[in-house]
Specification:
The protein is of the alpha/beta class. It has three domains: 7-60 and 69-175, no CATH class; 181-319, Rossmann fold (3-Layer(aba) Sandwich); 324-483, Rossmann fold. 48% of the residues lie in helices and 12% in strands.
């Protein structure tokens, strides 16, 4: 309203809010630097705001600050102040309201993760930054109802969706349109670095820094998407993919014979893995991890050259990854024609790619039970069944919505049922569950979330609030989707 702008403070706030991950063990210096930075920025903001108000004859209004720390505070002071704030928060709000606010915070973290990616790709996010600031003020509304909180969840889930779409287009603009790839999952003799997370710009910077260094780069988890961008495929030392994925990061990281680089906001509780040399670009570095500052990868490179690396090359084994967008859209058009002809009545979307033994057996049985008027779009696994379109892709959400946008145009006219079966609880899953439910998806099934990512009690609350289903048996779940 007053026209003030400070990009440095804006960026500091987004990163500080994003990076402080529950359950991670941060040391005294990390906490002190971050909180002190916030306090300094807050002081500057207040002074500038006061001056602007005085110069424009606007009355000064402040929210009361509940957390106050001395200049030489320590972590225990932060904890005590936080506990005191929680006590007051618990008095002011009901248990339902508190859980609602916590889910909103989960969505806001997802929003911030996209905002950080967009900043790295030089995309303007001012509009969404203002929405973030407004969202963080809602805890001052002691008379807010659960219906209003639910509406806010839906509002911020929609913003999360918009940012996801922006990131998708920005990545294509920066790195090229998606391509299909055969990705090696067999280690190759030599020094190695494992890259986890989802920040493609940081992967590119590392690839550039390590070219001609004799170091092979392996992707982990969501970072497999790096093999599907033409601009990143030109680096021959982006050699392959390692590990079983995010849920198995402890064993994956511990067994890798080189350092691990966690790109921004990777959300792994990696400080417990004392046998690994782990680096992160997050400014708040959990205990036991090393900081990559200002894209200076020299310490990471030295660690890789010092580490043993892989001592032999194993026989080549590959997995498919990626999708050609136009081919995917053509396949959706064919499904569209079959819906219009009355041949297909039920749509199931399964995925993302996630290889957990219990899920493998579940979906093998689930797919065998489908009738001829059912069609499956699977990002999970390829089975030899009719009416299944398989896409080997970890970066699912943009392509999920391309399908939903088409199917919802026909939903009422042809009375089709749309069901989504999420197979992994990744950082963005919660907001996507809320957004897809609000779009009108008939049934949403959720695989149990890791407590590292979200408190299980919040998942239970989300399930009840939005009528989300948890997996039971293939027979019972399919019956609900077909008749419920």
């Amino acid at each position: 309203m007053l026209g003030a702008r400070n990009d440095k403070i804006k960026n500091n706030f987004i990163e500080a809010f994003s990076v402080l991950i529950p359950n991670s063990d941060y040391n005294q210096d990390n906490i002190h630097n971050i909180v002190s930075g916030i306090y300094e920025d807050l002081h500057q903001i207040k002074e500038h705001y006061k001056q602007l108000c005085e110069s424009t004859n606007v009355s000064v209004k402040y929210y009361k600050t509940r957390i106050k720390l001395s200049k030489d505070f320590v972590i225990t002071d932060v904890i005590k102040q936080g506990q005191k704030y929680d006590e007051n928060f618990n008095k002011d709000f009901s248990e339902e309201q508190r859980k609602g606010f916590e889910i909103i915070l989960v969505i806001l973290k997802s929003i911030c993760m996209y905002m950080v990616e967009l900043q790295d790709l030089k995309i303007d996010i001012d509009k969404y930054y203002k929405e973030l600031i407004a969202a963080l003020c809602i805890k001052h509304l002691s008379d807010i109802t659960m219906e209003q909180i639910k509406a806010l969840m839906q509002k911020y889930a929609k913003i999360d969706y918009e940012l996801m779409a922006m990131v998708f287009e920005a990545k294509k603009s920066e790195f090229g349109d998606f391509v299909e790839a055969e990705v090696s999952i067999s280690p190759r003799e030599g020094k190695a670095i494992l890259v986890a997370g989802a920040n493609m710009k940081e992967l590119e910077l590392l690839l550039e820094a390590t070219k001609d260094k004799g170091i092979n780069i392996y992707s982990h988890g969501q970072m497999i998407t790096g093999h599907n961008f033409p601009k990143l495929k030109v680096y021959p030392h982006l050699i392959g993919h390692w590990g079983k994925g995010a849920e198995h990061f402890a064993s994956d990281f511990s067994s890798f014979p080189g350092p691990i680089f966690l790109t921004k906001l990777s959300l792994f509780k990696a400080e417990s893995l004392y046998s690994c040399k782990i680096f992160t670009s997050d400014k708040a570095v959990p205990t036991g991890l090393s900081l990559v500052k200002d894209n200076d990868f020299e310490p990471l490179i030295k660690s890789a050259l010092f580490a043993e690396g892989f001592d032999e090359t194993e026989p080549e084994e590959t997995i498919k990854s990626g999708i050609i967008e136009q081919n995917y859209l053509n396949s959706l058009s064919e499904i569209l024609n079959r819906i219009e002809s009355g041949e297909i009545k039920y749509i199931f979307v399964i995925g993302v790619s996630n290889k957990i033994s219990s899920q493998i057996e579940y979906f093998k049985k689930f797919l065998s039970l489908l009738k001829k008027d059912c069609f499956v779009i699977s990002f999970y696994s390829e089975e030899n069944v009719k009416n299944l379109l398989f896409n080997s892709l970890d970066y699912v959400f943009p392509f999920l919505y391309k399908a939903l946008n088409i199917f919802f145009k026909l939903k009422e006219t042809f009375d089709i049922k749309i069901n989504i079966l999420y197979t992994r609880c990744e950082p963005h899953t919660i907001s996507n569950i809320i957004y897809t439910k609000n779009l009108g998806v008939d049934h949403i099934y959720l695989y149990p979330c890791s407590p590292i990512l979200i408190n299980p009690s919040l998942v239970d609350f989300l399930v009840e609030l939005f009528d989300i289903k948890l997996y039971t048996t293939p027979e019972a779940d399919l019956k609900t989707m077909l008749t419920g």
